[in-house]
Amino acid sequence: MIERKLLLGDEAIALGAIHAGISGVYAYPGTPSTEITEYIQAHAPEVRSRWCTNEKTAMEAALGMAYAGKRALVCMKHVGMNVAADAFINSAITGVNGGLVVLAADDPSMHSSQNEQDSRFYGKFAMIPILEPSTQQEAYDMMAYAYELSERLKLPILMRVVTRLAHSRAGVVVKEPIKQNALNPETDRTHWVLLPVNARRQYASLVDKQGELLASSEASPYNSCKQQIGSDKSGTTSHENQANIEVTTHKSSSTSPVGVIACGIAHNYVMENITTGMDIPILKISQYPLPETAIKSLATQCESLLIAEDGQPLVEEQVKSLLGTDYPIKGRLTGELPRMGELTPDNVGAALGVNKEQIYATAQNVMPRPPALCQGCGHRDVYDALNKVAAEYEGARIFGDIGCYTLGALPPFRAIDSCVDMGASITMAKGAADAGVYPAIAVIGDSTFTHSGMTGLLDAINDNANITVIISDNLTTAMTGGQDSAGTNKFEAICLGLGLTPEHVRVVVPLPKNMEEITRVIREEIEYKGVSVIIPRRECMQTFQRKLRNKKK
Amino acid sequence: MKKDIILAGVGGQGILTIATIIGDAATAANLNLKQAEVHGMSQRGGDVQSNLRLSTETIYSDLIKQGAADLIISMEPMEALRYIPYINKDSWIVTSSHTFKNISNYPQEESLMEELTNFPHVAILPIEDVAKENSLPKSANVILLGMAAKYIEILSPEQLRESISRVFASKGEKIVEANLRAFDLGLQAVK
Ligand SMILES: Cc1ncc(C[n+]2csc(CCOP(=O)(O)OP(=O)(O)O)c2C)c(N)n1
Ligand code: SF4
């Protein structure tokens, strides 16, 4: 029976992976990737799915599962790729036994991120295939395809999505699930022990495989050419050439003024703008490395090419070097599309020369409505106290980190001086203290602390740095929707284990009525010359209320 | 036939529930649908929106083009105004008149309402008050959906009612009844 489900892109990926027989998903939360793992947790008890401490531990555990012959999925937001990069790059050198798919969810326009880096660069860097679905259906279908490809090539596969696919729903036709792989641990150690002698051989084999990767892209069912002759939008009059090869064209004698290379979700924005009468050959790309033959064939039929890709101009640069500097290429580097920010049907339409409909100007009585810390949130009390004490010290600097508590940067608090990457609060405070900043204070959340703060704290302790670290513990990973936090109930033990003395590991309850005590504790620990940790601990209001609601049911 | 709808509001006002109901009805009616949501920072009182696209034909873009939306459904009047560049002179704006002021520079209410009601097709109702008067404090969003039902066109009010029964079924008979009542209140308000 054909079943059609209404799924978020993330859910389509999750269900595709479940149906492709994965045995484990390994992930640290991060918008817009979080819902993949949450869906698997809720729908597939047979799949190992507990949250990991960070993206690197996730990547390595998944590699271990693939080593053992089973299929594994790793999910993260784009910046998580930076954390997982060491394991990720080297997994291409070892190769895999069971299938391994690494899912990176990019966030062009930085809807909820600190940058808009493009994960496709990591796939190219690691020299592995990249898949980039354009629809929820493709996202679902590609999972089974990705695992087969991974096991055939014996390489991990990078799948890259963007916010607008991850967080958009559409109908998806689902298939029968297949069984999980049996346990079948790798027997050949030379693939996996990356001593230089083995690593060189493995790397040579990876280089050798590049031809096979290219051939797979050239024949991919997800890379297709279309001669758009102005269809009725149902797609029935366009000529689709699924197994790529040549661009079909009706007017083979003449060339089109412009052709389009549309990558992943950009394909949707291009198609949205195609109307009757437009004669534009389109090459859709959803598998990399780039299918060079198809691109060259498209180029010969067009006088110029527009490159539509969501993210950084990776394909634009590659196509430029493929076709030579004389061939006119348009895109983000030449200004037809904006240099930064996500693609939209509007900016792609403009690049295609489609006239804009007459639209109303922005309304006058509209103000931005930024998010704020919830009423009653414990982070509020932490910042109230911190601001009071910091005002007593002229040179005070407060190094922030990533989480709900980053909202302490906004009014009314305006409390933090920096927020860079997960864990950087502690290490930046240490470096600044080394340079002479006093007091150097770090504010970090509980989940961020276990993600990347513990190692930096060890550095600070070993160096006896003069810093005060505040681990604002709300017993959850609130920013991304309240996932379990890896260190809950373990923070004092972790700090003591890293070498702090019990006198300088202080726990307080962040409530307005405790303001006197909290400010006193902060003051005392600032005055202490060395590393101290203060743990304000009170549950996030959102998870607290959710638990209450669930209890009532 | 197509219908491009922008759902707007402030985090926590329940616009995603409206999207779920319409989405369920569209799926049951075998329509094509795409619905882009904003997750992430949304639960902490920021603005939230969703692009909901329904069509009998293939839908490509997950996002609605400027000037192409047929309908704005908003839980808050200033949030309705935020998406004005997405509509055209034939589009409808269905909104609550109840302002949600969690920012210090919220526009002056009178000029806001004047700007809003100057658009050609606007249905506006103090849905929070209606919800309270009818002891339906949690169903303001479904009252709004009822108001919008007439303009969704591609789905009939009856199809939406059936979807409400399905979507709330797991919460029990009482909740289903309350939401159907809320829906009908909204529907009658614009007749
Ligand atoms: C490398 C990386 N991974 C994931 C994220 C997404 N992310 C941002 S903050 C956060 C969790 C914050 O949790 P916590 O430190 O406990 O603070 P809270 O939000 O609960 O206040 C996550 C997962 C990120 N920004 N960077
Ligand atoms: S979600 Fe939780 S941690 Fe985040 S602002 Fe709200 S109460 Fe605070």
Please describe the topology of this protein:
The complex is a heterodimer of chains A (553) and B (191).
Chain A: E1 3-8, H1 9-19, E2 22-27, H2 34-43, H3 55-67, E3 71-77, H4 80-94, E4 100-106, H5 120-126, E5 130-131, H6 136-153, E6 157-162, H7 163-166, E7 168-174, H8 196-208, H9 210-218, E8 224-228, E9 239-241, E10 259-263, H10 266-273, E11 280-285, E12 287-288, H11 292-301, E13 305-308, H12 314-323, E14 329-330, H13 345-351, H14 378-390, E15 397-399, H15 424-435, E16 440-445, H16 446-462, E17 467-472, H17 491-498, E18 505-508, H18 515-527, E19 532-536, H19 541-552
Helix pairs in contact in A: 1-2, 1-6, 3-4, 10-13, 14-18, 15-16, 16-17
Chain B: E1 2-10, H1 15-28, E2 32-37, E3 47-55, E4 69-74, H2 77-82, E5 87-96, H3 109-117, E6 122-125, H4 127-133, H5 140-152, H6 157-167, H7 173-189
Parallel strand pairs in B: 1-4, 4-5, 5-6
Antiparallel strand pairs in B: 1-3, 2-3
Helix pairs in contact in B: 1-6, 4-5, 5-7, 6-7
Bound molecules: thiamine diphosphate and iron/sulfur cluster.
The site of iron/sulfur cluster has 10 residues of chain A, from α19.
Please give the radius of gyration of chain A in angstroms.
26 Å
Compute the CA-based radius of gyration of chain B: 16 Å
Query: Mean of residue pLDDT of chain B?
Result: 95
Envelope shape of chain A = globular
CATH topology of chain B: Pyruvate-ferredoxin Oxidoreductase, domain 3
Structural summary, described in words:
The complex is a heterodimer of chains A (553) and B (191). Chain A has 553 residues and is of the alpha/beta class. Chain A folds into 3 domains: 3-208, Rossmann fold, CATH 3.40.50; 224-352, Rossmann fold (3-Layer(aba) Sandwich); 378-544, Rossmann fold. Helices cover 38% and strands 17% of the residues of chain A. Chain A contains 19 helices and 19 strands. Chain A has helices at 9-19, 34-43, 55-67, 80-94, 120-126, 136-153, 163-166, 196-208, 210-218, 266-273, 292-301, 314-323, 345-351, 378-390, 424-435, 446-462, 491-498, 515-527, 541-552, and strands at residues 3-8, 22-27, 71-77, 100-106, 130-131, 157-162, 168-174, 224-228, 239-241, 259-263, 280-285, 287-288, 305-308, 329-330, 397-399, 440-445, 467-472, 505-508, 532-536. A 6-stranded mixed beta sheet of chain A has the order 2-3-4-6-5-12, sandwiched between helices. A 6-stranded mixed beta sheet of chain A has the order 9-8-11-10-13-14, sandwiched between helices. In chain A, helix 6 links the parallel strand 5 and strand 6. Chain A is globular, with a radius of gyration of 26 Å. In chain A, 53% of the residues are buried. Chain B has one domain (2-189): Pyruvate-ferredoxin oxidoreductase, PFOR, domain III (Pyruvate-ferredoxin Oxidoreductase, domain 3), CATH 3.40.920. In chain B, helix 3 links the parallel strand 5 and strand 6. In chain B, 40% of the residues lie in helices and 23% in strands. A 6-stranded mixed beta sheet of chain B has the order 2-3-1-4-5-6. The model of chain B has no long low-confidence stretch (mean pLDDT 95). The radius of gyration of chain B is 16 Å and the shape is globular. Chains A and B meet through strand 1, strand 7, helix 10 and helix 13 of A and helix 1, strand 2, helix 2 and helix 3 of B. Strand 7 (168-174) of chain A pairs antiparallel with strand 2 of chain B. Residues 28-30, 77, 79-80, 83, 402-405, 422, 445-448, 474, 476-480, 485 of chain A line the site of thiamine diphosphate.
